[in-house]
Amino acid sequence: MIPIILTILFSSVKFAMTFPLAVIKFRFGFLETVLWTNVGGLAGIYFFAFLSGQLMQWWNRAFRPNAGHKKNGKKIFTGRNRRIVSIKKRYGLIGIAATTPLLLSIPIGTFLVVRYYRHARAKFIYLVSANLFWSVVYTGFYTFFNGFLFK
């Protein structure tokens, strides 16, 4: 029971680092690893999506009541804003969702998606699909090479 709980907790935060633990240390099989890492990944996506929304609302109310606007009401574009816009245009929602379990952690990727694609209806479908895809790929890799490379 403890290995399952640890796998769920770790995969909800740092998805890619959970697979060696689940396959090599806990000796989970293919389906068991896919199941528990996806349960953790999905729990992390929904938890951090809710938490991100709440944190952004609190932050904006507390520290930035008129942020990003001049006195005349026009938006101020800084270097940071331009960089964020270029990343959004280059990679988009699908790119951010696809790299969330792989390169980004689930909290950071979910925060970016919630922050910059708040009105996109399919944002959770993309995040969950990427989570499922990378879970199968990672689990397949570690279960296939477990006997050869990791002794």
List the helices and strands and how they pair.
Layout: H1 2-13, H2 18-25, H3 30-63, H4 79-99, H5 106-116, H6 123-149
What does this entry look like structurally?
This protein is an all-alpha fold and 151 residues long. The protein has one domain. It contains six helices and no strands. It starts with a helix and ends with a helix. The mean pLDDT is 85.
Helix content: over 70%
Distance between the termini: 24 Å
Fraction of residues in β-strands: under 5%
Count of DSSP strands: 0
Q: Which structural class best describes the helix and strand composition? A: mainly alpha
Number of domains: 1
Low-confidence stretches: none
Which outline best applies? elongated
Radius of gyration: 19 Å
The major β-sheet equals: none
Mean pLDDT: 85
Secondary-structure element series: HHHHHH
> How many alpha or pi helices?
6
